Amino acid sequence: MQSPGIDPDSAYARAGYRAYALALLTCVYVFNYIDRKIIFIVQEPIKLEFGLSDTQLGLLTGFMFMVFYVAFGIPFARWADKGVRRSVIAVALGAWSVMTVLCGMAQTYTHLLLARIGVAVGEAGSSPPSHSMISDIFPLKQRGTAMSIYTTGVYLGVLVGFAGGGWIGQHFGWRTAFLVVGAPGILLAILVRLTLIEPRRGMADKLRQVEDAPALTEVLKMLWSRHSFRYMVAASTMSAFFTNNLIGWMPSFLMRSHEMSISETGLWLALILGVVGGIGALSGGFLGDRLGDRDRRWYVYVPALALVIALPFTLYTFVTQDQSVSLLSYCVPVLVSGMYAGPVIAMTHAMVTSRARAMSSAVFFFIQNMIGLGLGPVFVGWLSDQLVPAYGQESLRYALLFALTFATVLAVTFYLLASRHLRSDLEKARG
Questions:
Q1: What global pTM score does this model have?
Q2: Which of 129, 147, 227, 293 is the most exposed place for a label (fewest CB within 10 A)?
Q3: Domain boundaries 8-198+218-430, corresponding CATH code
C-alpha cells in the first residue's frame, strides 16, 4: 500500500519523478543482469575446477536456470497484477542477491547449480512487475522508448559484470566475483521499497476504473487470439536465442580461439556489450516509437531489418582468424541484439488490459526464455561437444556459426509474419 498522503497521480505528473522511477527500475534490471551474466565471464575457471563439459556449462548457464526462471515468473506476475508491484520487485531483488552470494560459496557443481536455481527464482519477480509499472507511467507513444531504456539494463549489467567480474576473477578468483556483485543488491532492494511509489493502474492511459486482474487462462486466451502476438513471441524467441548465445559463449570463444585472458576478455566485451549494446537497445524503442507513430508495423520491421543488416557481420565475427577484426565485427550484431525487446513488449501490452500487463510479460518471457535462453546455450554447448572430433579447440566457432545463422533467418521470418496482423490486432484490442 502507499504511504499516507502520497498521491501517485501527482507524483508521476512530475517529469523528474517519472525519470527517477524509470532509472530505479532500470538499475534493478542492471543488477538482474550482473548477477545473471557474471557466470559467463568466469565459466572457464569454473569448468576447469569442477571438470565440466560444455554441455554441463550450458545446463548451468542456460537450461536449468531458465526452467525455474520461467516457472516462477507466472506466480510472481499474478502477485504483481493483484498486489503492490514495488514490493514484489523489492522481495525478488533481495532474494536473488542473497543467492548470488551463495554461488560464490559453492563447493561442488551441484551446490553451484542449486544456488543458480535460487538466483533464477528471485529474478523471475523482476521484469513482469517492472514492465507493468512502466506501462502505467508512460503513454503508448512513449512506451517503446521507455521499455528500451529499461532494456539497457541488460547491457549495462553485462558491462559491469564482465568488466568487474573479469578483473575480480582474474585477480581474486571466481568465488570472490560472485560475493562482490551479490551483496549490493540487498541495499538496492531496501531503496526500492522505501522510495518507489506504486503508480495507479491505467494511469498513463487515463483510465479511472480498472477491472480486476484476469486469471491466467483469460490472459492466455486474450494473447492467443492475437495472431501478431503468436508471431512476435516466436520471433523474439529466436532473437533471444541469438542474443544469449552471442553474449554467453563469446567469452569462451575468445579465450579458446584467440587465447585472450579472463580480464582482457571481460574488459573488451564489457565495452562492446555495455556501450554498443546499450545504444542498440535504446535505438530499437526510439525508432519503433518514431516510425510506429505513422505505422505500427514498424515496431516489428525495425528488429527484422536490423538482423538482416547484421548477418554478414555476425558470420565474419566467427570466420576471421584476426582477433581485432573479430571484435570489430562483433559490434554490429551486438548493436542490433536488443532492438526487439522494447518495441515487442510495448505492442504486447497494447493488446491486453492494464491489469494483465505483468502476466502478459510473464507469458511472453515463459515462451521466449524456455527456448531462446534455456535451450539456446545447451544446444550450442552440445553442438560444440559433437564437433570436437572434427574441429578440436575450434568446435565452438563452428557451433556458433550455425546456431546464430539459423536463429537470424527464423527471427526475420516471424517478424514479417507478425507485421501482417499487427494493425488489425491492435484495432481489436481498442474495440
A1: 0.73
A2: 293
A3: 1.20.1250.20
